[in-house]
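Good morning C.,

I know you're traveling, so I'll keep this short. The sequence:
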Amino acid sequence: MSEVYTSNKPVKTGSRNMLYLYILLGVLVLALVFVLLRSLFKTRTVEAHLLRQEIYLNEPLVYTDNTNGAEKWVWEFGNGDRSLKQNGSYHFRRSGSYIVRLTIDDNLRQQFPVIVKDTVAVTTVSNIAINGVSRATVNEQVRLDAEGDANIFDWSFGETNRVDAHGRTAFYTYHTAGSYTVTLKADKSSEPVFHTIIVAPPFDGGVIVDPGAGAAQMSNDFRDHLQAIANGKDFNTHYGHLVRNYLCQEDQTTVQATDETGSKKTSFYSYCMGLTFGRNIVIDDVGLTVLPNKKCVSAVTVQQHKKI
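The tokens, ready to paste straight into the viewer:
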């Protein structure tokens, strides 16, 4: 072992090296203790969330936590119920205001105010409607149209106790007189739509004009039945007569109606429905266009005015 003289006194170099080593070890121990203490007492942030804090009764309260290093969870829902899951959902049994509290690893806590409303908000489609006649005759084909935003339509006409037609437009022929409730179910409507049709016995009165007869006789007969509709007479009787005997059951035949306000083109069905809502309408003249080699009227022109 070598010696170093300081102030005329010998100092062993080996002892000095051991001193340096002890100091270095002490520093390393202190650093390790510091790191351990820092990891033990490191402040963690709770990373918990509720999907919604305002819900309706019977809707689930969805909760989740992503707190770093968490190992134990206690969710308390403010009514005595609790869950030990990290993530999940809970259904409240009563409406009201609640404080939901989460405890993580027995020492980290976070609270959430939650409002539970009385009833679940149900979105319904209220614009589904049935457009069509409310009166019909036995053995007469009835047409009804669905209006509204939907893709699937199922029709029950009330005579067979089953689904009788599908689609936005439905056709049906009643075989027995009576009052029937038509039920329409659509895929975007939470409730069915109803429509009442009164079916009368077969019509056997009046003079049926052969479409092969003179044009004047046909036009006069057509005009008389339109005037009867405008005057508030039985719609089904006069409408059915015209559709059966002139239009070959095609109630979408084009009608060009002209009055003092101008000219308007529409379907025969829509035109006749308009007559029922109008007042003091006088049918002056009717023109009929017949398809070549057929007995069906393909177009109708009407000149009318409103009686003052």
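Safe travels,
E.
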